[in-house]
Amino acid sequence: MQNFTLESQFQITGIGSASGLVYKDNSLFIISDNGPFLYQFDIPENKLTRIPLVENAKENIPKKEKFDFESITLKGNTFHIFGSGSTSKREKRITYNHVTAATEEKDLSKWYQKLKLATGISDEDLNIEGALFYNEKLLLFQRGNGVHSRNGIAILDGDFNENGKIEFIPIQLPKIKHVETSFTDAILVKNKIYFLATAEDTISTYEDGEILGSIIGRIDIDTMKIDFSQKITDTNKFEGLTFYNKTEDKIEFLLCEDNDTEVLETNIYKLTL
After folding, report:
1. How far is CA 150 from CA 141, 143, 193, 221, in A?
2. Which has the closest alpha carbon to 29: 6, 57, 50?
3. Residue 221: exposed, middle, or buried by beta-carbon count in 10 A (0-12, 13-18, 19+)?
4. Which terminus of the chain, N or C, has less C-beta within 10 A?
5. Taking the complete model, does pTM exceed 0.90, yes or no?
């Protein structure tokens, strides 16, 4: 059991269905699963900037057409943003260098297929919701909210090519009521993985279900064993996690919530352990 506090930090107008965030230099960089933008929110100035990641970018794309960006991680000066892979439209990676403003799009459909073959995850069950880099390896977090409930971490050794090796580590997460929680984001703090997971009463990676709550947990990256997990809400579907601050006796994170609506408002929460 971890002592924690969860409080609303601020509300951002202009972003809907936030699915991932990175805190850097007094700004929040946020992605949404219903539009191809990277949003930069300057906290001191209370100012939101939209950075289009594709041509003719627009918000609230119809569900069957959306890119479903669910994962964002920062390596050096470059943000890496991944689609969930849950449909053929959602198999892209986009990188954005926040110094040069250079954007690059890569089709990962062949690699996602290789991932499914290597792990035994079906087309219907693949749902990548978190990403981080560690020792030049890329870790992708599979949300097991499909029929077979396969939570786990896919570790890519090498670039997205035919020679890249894939290792999959299944992770069993705690249940809330009768539903196993499933990964919604993960970050690295030193040699510990902090993750969010949500219990959603559905067996579909496509259709939403009743939210039963969310947890935070920690995994030791050397053993891949869960150190602890803690339920933090009965009602919120937290989908984004970023490191905020650390002192001798506490660590603080910022969280974003996917409200599963077309309303362009996002609440940011501060979680303190």
Report:
1. 10, 7, 18, 19
2. 50
3. middle
4. N
5. yes
pLDDT given at position 162: 66
**Residues 179/231, Cβ–Cβ less than 8 Å:** no
Residue 17: closest CA among 61, 80, 65 = 61
CB-side exposure of 50: number of CA atoms within 13 Å? 16
Show the tokens assigned to 237: 């579907």
Give the CA count within 13 Å in the CB-facing half-sphere of 94. Answer: 23
Give the confidence band of 81 by pLDDT, cuts at 50, 70, 90.
very high
Q: Which residue stretches of the chain are H helix?
A: 109-119
For the four alpha carbons of 61, 67, 70 and 73, in that order, the dihedral sign comes to negative
The pLDDT tens digits for 101-145 are 999 999 999 889 988 988 889 888 999 999 999 998 999 999 988
